[in-house]
Design brief:
Number of strands: 9
Order of helices and strands: HEEEEEHHEEEE
Distance between the termini: 57 Å
Oligomer: single chain
Helix content: 10-25%
Mean pLDDT: 89
Length: about 180
């Protein structure tokens, strides 16, 4: 599992969840992209990775394969990675029934806690450690108005596995020598 696979997995889960809630018009985008995308005209969800933490030591497993006369080695690293999800919603003061950015963030956090989301993640070898509370940040938008940009973090765990082979020892000779 790598970052791009996790990002694609989160985006596909959010797209499917939004579709079930009849919110397909909401865009799900990677934040801080290599190219300038600009701010979408409609509502949007932004995702980016926060620093990754390493915990513990890798698990090592070596098994002798008699048919090929090699040692199959598996090294497993346990990773905990955190992603930040932020939302933007176009506000129209005359439409009091429209979702605010905070409402959208709350809905996204709910989607990430659906049973179907957990099943999809677990089938891909990813688990959810936690989803934080929603933080509401305000900034001045391109029109000079104050705008909510709520965000929260989702911490995921997964295993990263490397497989290799090592030639087995051909022969071991025992040689005991006395001292003195």
């Amino acid at each position: 599992m790598n970052d791009n696979q996790i990002l694609a997995l989160i985006i596909s889960i959010l797209d499917a969840g939004l579709a079930t809630l009849n919110m397909s018009s909401v865009e799900v985008l990677q934040n801080y992209q290599a190219t300038q995308q600009g701010i979408p005209e409609g509502d949007a969800i932004y995702i980016h990775k926060l620093p990754e933490k390493r915990y513990g030591s890798p698990q090592e497993l070596s098994t002798f394969n008699e048919s090929t006369n090699v040692v199959d080695q598996t090294t497993t690293f346990y990773r905990v990675t955190t992603w930040q999800i932020a939302t933007r919603a176009q506000q129209d003061p005359s439409n009091v029934s429209a979702l605010t950015a905070s409402d959208l963030a709350d809905t996204v956090a709910d989607i990430l806690q659906f049973m179907s989301t957990r099943q999809t993640l677990l089938a891909s070898g990813v688990g959810i450690d936690r989803i934080t509370n929603i933080r509401t940040v305000y900034e001045v938008n391109e029109k000079g108005r104050n705008e909510q940009v709520p965000n929260f973090d989702i911490t995921l765990n997964y295993r990263k596995i490397y497989n290799s082979t090592v030639a087995a020892a051909g022969q071991i000779e025992q040689n005991l020598t006395g001292i003195g």
